[in-house]
Design brief:
47% of the residues lie in helices and 18% in strands. The protein is α+β, with helices and mostly antiparallel strands. Helix 4 packs antiparallel against helix 5 (108-122).
């Protein structure tokens, strides 16, 4: 199955991280990234002291490449030193610095206060440092000390938004366990959300989106109109020919003869009607300017 490949890669990365943590403890090892390619394998190491990782004239890097190729079967290992993006808010960096200060004999309270001030100035919403062990001094009883500021969650699903890291140190006085919690500046908890303001922002964003869509539609329409205007008219466009007028029908000889015959027949009929009229009627017709044949 494909899932088994990803699980094996993850387990191998965890094993490599634990191995490098033991090897590079003086260098302040933080994390490792492994990027595989068909040609080689890139191993990016994040540490507080890159000089210890490199060694004198690259001796430590050469030893690490041989070690990783032999023990973990990696192909053509190429080691790089990565840069940590935000040291003041990375819990692994802060707890590593805190542990190194305690191991060097720095006073517990001054080391913790320095770390808290560092996180506060970086913009953390909240932070907490809890130490359990012999923190008071030689011959004193073990106790738990807690230092905190700001706002953070410890229960429910929202506790996953809090960055957490723990580490155990072994100073001369005894064993000390350190627990660190940091709330990053961009973290927003559900009980701190203003619903009315959120709805107002959503409404404004929606209106802005619709306005942008309308302006885009108008611009596309204007571009289409300009393209249509700029298009040249086709030269081979068929021209409309005027309709030819049909010649009038020429009157045939038979039609002219029939018309003349009709006129003559009409005249003869009028004469016969006048002949049949009485004398009194003929006189009235003559007086009115009629013609009597």
């Amino acid at each position: 199955m494909k899932e088994n490949v990803f699980v094996k890669d993850k387990l191998k990365k965890i094993a490599i991280s634990q191995h490098l943590q033991k090897k590079l403890k003086p260098a302040g090892f933080i994390d490792v990234d492994i990027i595989k390619s068909p040609i080689s394998t890139r191993v990016i190491i994040y540490a507080l002291k890159p000089g210890f990782v490199i060694g004198k004239s690259g001796y430590n890097i050469k030893a690490l490449t041989d070690d990783l190729e032999q023990n973990f079967g990696l192909n053509k290992v190429h080691i790089e030193i990565g840069e940590l993006p935000n040291k003041d808010l990375d819990p692994r960096v802060i707890i590593e610095n805190l542990a190194s200060d305690i191991n060097r004999g720095v006073a517990w309270k001054s080391a913790v206060n320095r770390a808290m001030q560092q996180m506060k100035s970086a913009g953390a919403v909240g932070a907490e440092i809890v130490a359990k062990g012999n923190t008071a001094g030689k011959g004193q009883r073990k106790r738990s000390s807690r230092y905190a500021f700001g706002y953070l969650k410890k229960a429910g699903a929202q506790k996953d938004l809090v960055s957490f890291e723990k580490q155990t140190t072994f100073p001369g006085l005894g064993t000390i366990g350190i627990r660190l919690r940091i709330v990053q500046p961009e973290t927003v908890f559900s009980d701190k959300i203003d619903v009315a303001e959120l709805a107002h922002r959503y409404k404004l964003a929606k209106e802005q989106k619709t306005q942008e869509e309308r302006t885009q539609e108008i611009e596309t329409q204007e571009k289409e109109l300009e393209e249509k205007k700029s298009e040249p008219e086709p030269k081979d466009k068929p021209t409309r020919q005027p309709k030819e007028k049909k010649p009038a029908k020429e009157a045939t000889a038979t039609e002219t003869k029939s018309k003349e015959q009709k006129k003559q027949a009409k005249k003869v009929q009028q004469k016969t009607e006048l002949m049949e009229l009485p004398e009194e009627a003929l006189t009235t017709v003559d007086n009115m300017g009629g013609v009597i044949l």
